[in-house]
Structures are given as structure tokens and as C-alpha cells.
Amino acid sequence: MSELNSRRVHLATVPNFRSLGGLPVAGGTVAPGMIFRSATLGSLSAADSATLVDLGIRRVADFRTAGERESAPDVLPDDVEGVVFDVLGDQPSSMAASLAHIGMPGDDSEMTPEAAAAAARGIADALGEGRGIALLQDSYRQFVETDSARTAYHGFFAALTEEGEYRPTLFHCSAGKDRTGWAAAVFLLLLGADEATVLEDYLLTNVDIMPMVEPMLAKAEANGLDPEMLLPVLTVQPEMLGAALAAMRAEYGTVEEYFVRGLGLEEDRLRVLRDRFIAA
């Protein structure tokens, strides 16, 4: 785990931020300083903005829905391009796009205690006894199966393999765990990382996301919800990623076939991806 931890960059206003550089893949490691993942940049401070620039990041890929972007627009440094790849445009009410509101049934000043308690019971009924994880597994399958997801991930990987000078890229969604987690997993698998490496990076989110999750859990508890019930859906679980991997393999067989047939990208781009991002 120490090798993975060394990839972290602490940003006070951007949780769950880390580089993919240095992870072991076929023939070497992911090249450093080339690609990063995080949660939303909606509250990016001036100091953290300067850090992004210092890291060499010149493009930010946003996987969020229109509603998410409108409620918390990215704050980007000058000379950093923002591009949108809306993964859940076909399913804007998908669980993966709704997590920011979990545990917060409303503005306490506008809700009676009875109404807040009823809202809390509704959330518990929806998410308790493993139902929340099952809903997120459905979201992960949507990452593979829906038109908006295929279009979004096509655009993302096309940007990573574009001709000309590559611009180091940060990609994110709201929490940086689900849509972002799938993008990172596919990226690493395409470079030949083994599944243990992919899963270890994926699960590192459960540590790095806590500055975002802890206030949500406190709010949930104040509203009468059991934080232990919410924690599994506000973090990541192996069976969530497993649902997307199973859907991909059922339809396409391999990650390479998903890249070519599912995302509609030329095989030559796979060579470009590996040449560009693998350091011997």
C-alpha cells in the first residue's frame, strides 16, 4: 500500500485527489505527471489551483451530469481547459449521480421534525439491507451499457489518445469514486495492470474520500439516519466495480474489445495509449 499512497497529493479543497503515475502495468509503470483523478473542483481554492498548475495539469475532464455541474461548477485555473463527458446523461437520477444528497433530506429550517424523520425513514428504506449497494451496482452496469456512458468514455479516451502534444489531464465526477473509478479501472486494465492493482487503487478512495464523507455522515446522523448504513454507498465496494467488469465481459469479452467495439475507438488508439502512458 505504501507505493500507492505515495501517489497522493493533498489538496484542502479537492478530496480524493491522486496521480495514477507509478502504478505497475505491462512493461513498466504508468508515466508520472500525466494523468490524475479526483472529486469535484467546485470549491477549488486559489492555493490548490496553483498546485494544479504546478503539477502540470492542463485539462480537466468532468464526468458529471448537467444538474451536478450547475449546482457546483468547476473552478479552473487560467489556461486549464475544461471538457465535459456526461456519463449519466441518459440516467441523471442514477444512484451514482445522486450521492451528494444522501443523508440530507432537506434544509432543517424548512422541515418539521416529523417531516425530517419521515424523510430519514424513506432513505433508510431505500438504502438499507444492501439495497443501496445494489442500486450502485446498477449504476456501474450503466457505465458500460448506456449510450451516454459509451459516448462519454469514447470522448475521454479519444482525448487521451489525440494527435499532437498531450495535455496532462485530471478527470473527476462529484465524489471521484464511481464514474471516475470506472474510468481509472479501464485505463489501467488497457495498460496491462493486473486486477489486484486496479482494485487497490479503486479501494484507496475509501481513505481519501473521508474529508468529503464525514460531514455527510454527521448530517445524516443528525437527521436520524444510521451512519453505518450510509457508509457503504458513500464509499466504494469491490462488488460495485465487479458489476461493471462483469457487464463489460458479458458483452465484449475483453477490455480491448470494449475499447474498440463498445467505445468505438480505433485499434491504433490503443497503441497510442500504451506508448504515451507506459514508462519502461
Q: Tell me the series of helices and strands, N- to C-terminal.
A: HEEEEHEHEHHHEHHHHHHHE
The tally of domains stands at 1
Distance between the termini: 21 Å
Percentage of residues assigned to helices: 40-55%
Structural class: alpha/beta
Name the CATH class. Alpha Beta
Mean pLDDT: 90
Morphology: globular
Number of distinct helices? 13
Instruction: Let me know the number of strands.
Output: 8
Largest sheet: 5 strands, mixed
Q: At the third CATH level, what is the topology name?
A: Protein-Tyrosine Phosphatase, Chain A
Strand content: 5-15%
The value of Rg in angstroms is: 19 Å
Side-by-side strand order of the widest sheet: 1-4-7-5-6
What would you say the CATH architecture is?
Alpha-Beta Complex
Uncertain residue segments: 103-109
Give the name of the CATH superfamily.
Protein tyrosine phosphatase superfamily
